[in-house]
Write a structure and sequence with these properties.
alpha+beta; binds fe (ii) ion; 7-stranded antiparallel beta sheet; binds FE2/S2 (inorganic) cluster
Length: 375
């Protein structure tokens, strides 16, 4: 590994056109120093997707997260507004909420300070003798939160441009799915021993589908789309939903009522940089959100979302099992290959490789990351 990882000379071959380019050097996937730069220049500057608004349906509902080492919590207030807070008590810093649930006030498990759902400090037992103490100065620390189509995003950077800028023309591409009207019916978490980029790259190329998914979803032949904004998409023409295994296709739900144009005739796979992925198909949508835990570890959350009208069907609970079967079959295949890739990349003898014509977004991810982390 070279002394300075951020000298652009190391990346000259990554910068070439995709079919002439080399892949990122292995240290980009394994060195903590490179990861720390990504956290500083990417994750702390960009909008990061955390949860769907429908996952926090009622006032008092909360979900806690850890994003690049930062404990965060989303809470729906009595005024119906969802807020994002640093999940840390203003007395001596204890993490306030864990997991997900519902509460009327946020009470610190250590000494019992209590906060309203809007973050205001409302009870401070035993603080009567403390001088010059005003509760109004010690409310929860709030982060910027914005939403699009039911997806909630947070940003650590007070000066970052609005979410709309990061999204560019993605909302227009996906408008006919009416995702704001969808409900997340299941969320699964995987703890993976791989770098966050490995997982995203895998999700955005079809080169691996005939091998890795040979016995499940099989080969997919996608095309890359033009994008304006911090996202990339590939499109898979297919007459029916791909959220079911081939043998289960007869059990599909009806298509989303509002679908138009290409959305009605195929599936979009979208990477919203830095680390969100979602797939929109004729009857549902699923997302994979990556929470980096270090250079070589990533927690992946997978959400399965269907239109409200589909979820209300009498046969929903029975039929959705086939969809779960599809995700629970194909996702572990991607998880395993991502961990194998990481296991090989850490070799001290590893050298940058070359890309096929089926991996254009892998090249794009590498170059986007370099654009952010190099001076
Ligand atoms: S650390 Fe929360 S009340 Fe003391
Ligand atoms: Fe895959």
């Amino acid at each position: 590994m070279p002394e300075s990882l951020f000298d652009s000379a190391h990346y000259r071959n990554v910068r070439r056109p995709a079919l002439e380019a080399e892949t990122l050097p292995a240290w980009c996937y394994s060195a903590e120093e490179f990861y720390a730069r990504e956290v500083e220049r990417i994750f702390r500057k960009r909008w990061n997707f955390l949860a769907r608004a429908d996952e926090l349906a009622r006032p008092g509902d909360y979900m806690s997260f850890e994003l690049c080492g930062e404990p965060l919590v989303l809470v729906r207030g009595k005024d119906e507004k969802v807020r994002a807070f640093a999940n840390t008590c203003r007395n001596r810093g204890t993490r306030l909420l864990s997991g997900r649930g519902s509460c009327r006030v946020i009470t610190c498990p250590y000494h019992g300070w209590a906060y309203g759902l809007d973050g205001a400090l409302i009870a401070t037992p035993g603080m009567e003798e403390t001088r010059n103490f005003a509760r109004g100065d010690y409310g929860l620390l709030e982060l910027r939160l914005e939403s699009w189509a039911g997806f909630l995003f947070v940003n650590f950077d007070r000066t970052a441009p609005a979410l709309a800028e990061q999204l560019g023309d993605l909302p227009a591409l996906l408008a006919s799915y009416d995702m704001a009207e969808m409900v997340c019916v299941r969320r699964r978490e995987y703890e993976l021993t791989c770098n966050w980029k490995i997982y995203l790259e895998n999700a955005m190329e079809d080169y691996h589908t005939p091998t890795v998914h040979k016995g499940s979803i099989g080969k997919q032949l996608t095309e890359q789309l033009e994008a304006r904004g911090d996202w990339r998409a590939i499109y898979l023409p297919a007459a029916e939903t791909i959220a079911l295994l081939p043998e289960d296709k007869a059990g599909a739900f009806p298509p989303i009522a509002t679908l138009e144009g290409r959305a009605a005739r195929g599936t979009y796979f979208v990477a919203l940089y830095p680390s969100s992925f979602f797939a929109t198909t004729q009857d549902c949508m699923w997302w994979l959100q990556e929470f980096p835990q270090g250079a070589r570890r990533t927690r992946v959350s997978v959400g399965s979302c269907f239109p409200k009208r589909t979820v209300a069907r009498a046969d929903f609970a029975a039929k959705v099992e086939k969809y779960y079967r599809r995700w629970d079959t194909s996702l572990p295949e991607d998880n395993a290959i991502s961990e194998l890739q990481q296991a090989g990349l850490v070799s001290s003898l590893s050298r940058p490789g070359r890309l096929s014509s089926r991996e254009p977004v892998v090249h794009d991810i590498a170059n986007w990351v370099l654009d952010q982390v190099l001076d």
